[in-house]
């Protein structure tokens, strides 16, 4: 006779929405131990077996699970904590149409077919999104975007600038659920004497959204908005940014 002893601890899980998930906690003792599972410190109704089974995982199942084991003599012990991370399927990424200014000063949308990437193969952190916004001098060369620091030499070279795709690499390492990059800058490269800096290509993932202030090989412009001067992209982004819509829909509204 003696207090219960846990011989098999539950293991952390990372599962997708809609999948089946299970946690196991096996204990020994005389009298025979009884089980009670908890999520985030709250007892789960009807979860009183050694194995906790979730037949269809939903986002609400995300949390920290523990199992308390007790016998009729009120002797009790607890399992180690097991984190269950639920991954929500993220839709495809879209490279949205951009803005161009015609000579008459009218806004003109240059439409292009959306760029579709496959879904990410690696799991993403639940609900964790990353947003990167840049407004300033920049350019695009060979499909790569560069931000020009205020202290860059004149004339500047790619190695004097910050590559946006390198920032995206850092974001992808964190396995975020969604990465949004808003580039309020020019995309025109004037100095053809220098090639872009070396950078390994990014593996396509389905959780990236780009928003550009202008079309390829074009300049971004500013407008006077009351007492302040701001980019045209920002002027229209402020009108839609607080709306409860998908980020892709917000950026499409900005481009209209």
Number of helices: 3
- Based on CA atoms alone, the radius of gyration comes out at 26 Å
Mean pLDDT across the residues is 75
Approximately how much beta-strand content do the residues carry? 35-45%
What is the CATH domain class of the largest domain?
Alpha Beta
Helix content: 10-25%
Please summarize the sheet with the most strands: 6 strands, mixed
Low-confidence stretches: 90-125, 197-204
- The string of secondary-structure elements, in order, is EEEEEEEEEEEEEEEEHEEEEHH
Explain what this protein looks like in three dimensions:
The protein is mostly beta strands and 256 residues long. The chain folds into two domains: 2-87, Immunoglobulins (Immunoglobulin-like, Sandwich), CATH 2.60.40.10; 98-255, Rossmann fold. Helices cover 11% and strands 37% of the residues. The chain contains three helices and 20 strands. The strands form seven sheets. Strands 2, 5, 6, 8, 9 and 10 form a six-stranded mixed sheet that branches. β5 (34-39) and β6 form a beta hairpin. α2 crosses α3 (247-255). Mean pLDDT is 75; it is low at 90-125 and 197-204.
